[in-house]
């Protein structure tokens, strides 16, 4: 498995620096030498706009034509058979075909059981396992028949139904050469089979069509050889960053000159460089005759196209051939797949739910992708975000979600259309959010994908981390009866030991002895947020140094004072707590959904933050509302909550902090109580003789005469690794939580919501009652 590919390659990715990169299906990695070659080329040569005249432009034009030929040669074909149209990527290529394909459509509809003749309209056929960009093509193919097929239906279609009409309609079938979800390779023999008309079997009441095939090869060609001399699709869509990492934003539509070119006849728009002549006072133009000249509107991305040439050269020099890459990534995937199939908990229940279409025994049918979810010993699923957090904590790069392939995700996870619609309408789940489990059912999965630079060490690292983090030797039933009895005996000893507020989201804490409550939580808690120049609220996940911004609040003077990293000798920043009507409003988008709306605090504090954090364009916003209210698996988040992630208050206990301290002692020699406590950013700390983590079983908390209900357990991410006094990270914290899961998740503390609306205070030493 550690073949000759790895030797010359290992020095090409020095920037990885201990990172295990397993998202090659998301993007290949560019090499050091590739970028050096590109840079040297651009420094040493003068390239002009190929639409201009002069030597630099002529040289550029000739070089681009050579690169077109080099791309075709890479796919074992030539310009007599195929043409290259440069696009923004595979998505741009798919869109171009949908816009320009010669569809046959009609507004006439047949009644059921009508004796009338069959309709002469086009069909847009596609497989269930397809990228979102293919589904988007449907919206440009209106007035025609839609045909979504399972792989089995395509395989089973064998009888040829040829058109007998002299005016046969044109239909299009789109499928991926390789699934970006499971890595299954669909038969390239389907190309010729479908062109012969076998899919007419599935088009009742429609005249048999002349079928054309569009192959989405973006995933396939990243690690395999597409031989266009052996197989002849009418159209092929590719993205170059999937193959060799750079350039991004550039792809191609490869068009068969004799079959594909004639049916790309619906192009209407034209831009600079695509016409031989046009008149401004009359609607008259003559398109250019070469296919790519007519379809490449405006000036092409000529410097990126030049970079493609270097990418192809580097790939061939380092790997020899795409066949070698295909073999390597398959062997790595098969190796990891076997280990995951054999992994079991202590009760012999499987650890992994693998989403596969093959058994990883044949390179011709399986690529270097593995898709899975993790199952706990009791049968519950682990949310994919928890897996991602553990991976991040161990410098493993992978991808989670549905991978822009809703059909394959739905098929493998066995989700119904009704479930998906309900998750969106009632639960608020959308693509790309953090809702990995809804009612205990996964909304997506985890994907790892190998590239030509990958090694057995990458597979072993991932496997060992997943085993150490999620394998359960003993199945513990929770809640524990003994724990309940202990809590009941010691319940009168509980009291508030410390109170914290965090005026600015993700910045330093203020410890207080007593503090007033408002409808959104403690007064001023998470009322301000730092917004970057892109309009997003930033947290310590993006900039750990936020914790070094230390606020102080004077309730009587109504001012907040900011210092950075405790430098009292430097001039602090003072902010008026009162908002003026004339202050400008600003919005900050939240990474977990929705946005905060509030009053901009002015240029002075903005410049102070930007200077100290060394980030240009920062603004401080005092929140006045949250819009829209974020949905979670339990319903809609209360709109009155401002910058808090989930609920109004977060509670932890001294017993749980001490438990974690003990776990950390082996790795952090100078660990102390506050160092552990502050990284969890709780509002209320509770003392008392109770077992560690017992708070997870509480449902109700009464402090004084104020009643709180548990809203949810607080699931933790890698932000808890950040030491709040220095902004340094230690991955041990999250690793311990993952190894000691409570109620099936890496949790620490509980969210509370207040049931009382009257004004009140909470203070240190108040007694607490819990249920």
Overview of the structural elements:
This protein has 20 helices and 37 strands. By secondary structure, it is an alpha+beta fold. The protein folds into four domains: 38-315, Aspartate Aminotransferase, domain 2, CATH 3.40.640; 324-470, Aspartate Aminotransferase, domain 1 (Alpha-Beta Complex), CATH 3.90.1150.10; 481-497 and 645-770, Beta Barrel (M1 Pyruvate Kinase, Domain 3); 500-636, no CATH class. An eight-stranded mixed β-sheet has the order 19-18-32-31-35-34-33-37. Strands 2-8-7-6-5-3-4 form a seven-stranded mixed β-sheet, sandwiched between helices. α12 packs antiparallel against α20 (732-739). The two termini are 57 Å apart.
How large is the share of residues in beta strands?
A: 15-25%
Instruction: Describe the global form.
Output: globular
Largest sheet: 8 strands, mixed
Task: Please name the CATH topology of the largest domain.
Answer: Aspartate Aminotransferase, domain 2
Count of individual beta strands? 37
Helix-and-strand structural type: alpha+beta
Instruction: State the distance separating the first and last CA atoms.
Output: 57 Å
Strand order of the largest sheet: 19-18-32-31-35-34-33-37
> What CATH architecture of the largest domain would you give?
3-Layer(aba) Sandwich
**Roughly how many Å is the radius of gyration?**
30 Å
Mean pLDDT: 87
What ranges have pLDDT less than 50 throughout 5 or more consecutive residues? 1-5, 476-490, 632-636
Q: Assign the CATH class of the largest domain.
A: Alpha Beta
Fraction of residues in helix: 25-40%
């Amino acid at each position: 498995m550690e073949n000759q590919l790895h030797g010359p390659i290992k020095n090409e990715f020095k920037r990885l620096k201990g990172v295990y990169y397993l998202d090659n299906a998301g993007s290949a990695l560019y090499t050091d030498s590739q970028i050096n070659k590109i840079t040297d080329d651009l420094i040493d040569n003068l390239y002009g706009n190929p639409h201009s005249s002069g030597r630099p432009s002529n040289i550029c034009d000739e070089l681009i034509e050579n690169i077109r030929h080099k791309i075709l040669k890479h796919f074992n074909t030539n310009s007599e058979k195929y043409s290259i149209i440069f696009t923004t990527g595979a998505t741009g290529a798919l869109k171009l075909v949908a816009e320009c394909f010669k569809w046959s459509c009609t507004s006439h509809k047949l009644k059921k059981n009508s004796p009338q003749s069959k309709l002469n309209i086009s069909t847009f056929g596609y497989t269930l396992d397809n990228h979102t960009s293919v589904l988007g093509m449907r919206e440009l193919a209106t007035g025609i028949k839609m045909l979504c097929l399972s792989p089995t239906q395509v395989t089973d279609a064998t009888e040829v139904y040829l058109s007998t009409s002299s005016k046969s309609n044109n239909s299009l079938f789109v499928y991926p050469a390789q699934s970006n979800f499971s890595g299954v390779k669909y038969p390239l023999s389907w190309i010729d089979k479908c062109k012969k008309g076998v899919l007419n079997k599935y088009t009742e009441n429609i005249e048999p069509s002349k079928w054309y095939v569009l192959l989405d090869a973006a995933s396939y060609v990243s690690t395999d050889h597409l031989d266009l001399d052996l197989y002849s699709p009418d159209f092929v869509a590719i993205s170059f960053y999937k193959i060799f990492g750079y350039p991004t934003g550039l792809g191609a539509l490869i068009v068969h000159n004799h079959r594909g070119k004639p049916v790309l006849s619906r192009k209407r728009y034209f831009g600079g460089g695509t016409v031989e002549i046009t008149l401004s006072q009359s609607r008259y133009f003559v398109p250019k005759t070469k296919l790519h000249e007519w379809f490449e509107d405006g000036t092409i991305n000529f410097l990126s196209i030049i970079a493609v040439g270097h990418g192809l050269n580097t790939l061939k020099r380092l790997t020899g051939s795409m066949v070698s890459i295909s073999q390597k990534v398959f062997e790595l995937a098969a190796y990891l797949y076997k280990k995951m199939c054999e992994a079991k908990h202590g009760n012999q229940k499987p650890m992994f739910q693998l989403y596969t279409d093959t058994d990883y025994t044949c390179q011709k049918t399986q690529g270097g992708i593995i898709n899975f979810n993790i199952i706990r010993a009791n049968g519950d699923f682990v949310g994919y975000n928890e897996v991602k957090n553990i991976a991040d904590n161990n410098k493993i790069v992978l991808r989670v979600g549905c991978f822009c392939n809703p059909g394959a995700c739905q098929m493998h996870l066995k989700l119904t259309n009704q479930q998906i619609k309900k998750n969106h309408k009632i639960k608020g789940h959308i693509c790309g959010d953090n809702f990995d489990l809804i009612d205990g059912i996964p909304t997506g999965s985890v994907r790892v994908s190998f590239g030509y630079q990958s090694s057995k060490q990458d597979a072993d690292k991932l496997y060992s981390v997943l085993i150490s983090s999620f394998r359960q030797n003993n199945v513990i039933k929770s809640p524990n009866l003994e724990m309940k009895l202990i809590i009941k005996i010691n319940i009168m000893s509980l009291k508030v030991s410390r109170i914290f507020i965090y005026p600015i989201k993700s910045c330093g804490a203020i410890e207080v002895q007593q503090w007033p409550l408002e409808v959104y939580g403690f007064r001023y808690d998470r009322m301000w947020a730092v917004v970057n120049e892109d309009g997003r609220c930033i947290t310590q996940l993006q900039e750990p140094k936020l914790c070094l911004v230390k606020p102080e609040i004077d309730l009587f003077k109504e001012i907040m004072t900011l210092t950075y990293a405790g430098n009292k000798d430097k001039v602090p920043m003072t902010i008026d707590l009162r908002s003026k009507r004339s202050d400008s409003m600003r919005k900050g988008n939240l990474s977990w959904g929705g946005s905060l709306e509030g009053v901009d605090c002015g240029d002075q504090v903005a410049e102070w933050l930007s200077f100290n954090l060394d980030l240009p364009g920062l603004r401080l916003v005092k929140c006045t509302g949250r819009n829209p209210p974020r949905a979670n698996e339990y319903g809609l988040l209360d709109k009155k909550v401002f910058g808090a992630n989930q609920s109004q208050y977060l509670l932890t206990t001294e017993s749980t902090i001490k438990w974690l301290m003990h776990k950390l002692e082996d790795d952090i020699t100078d660990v102390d109580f506050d160092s552990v406590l502050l990284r969890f950013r709780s509002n209320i700390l509770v003392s008392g003789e109770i077992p560690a983590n017992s708070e997870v079983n509480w449902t109700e908390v009464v402090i004084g005469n104020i009643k709180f209900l548990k809203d949810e357990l607080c699931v933790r991410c890698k932000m808890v690794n950040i030491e709040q006094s220095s902004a340094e990270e230690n991955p041990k914290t999250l690793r311990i939580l993952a190894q000691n899961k409570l109620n099936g998740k890496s949790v620490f503390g509980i969210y509370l919501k207040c049931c009382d609306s009257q004004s009140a205070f909470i203070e240190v030493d108040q007694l607490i009652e819990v249920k």
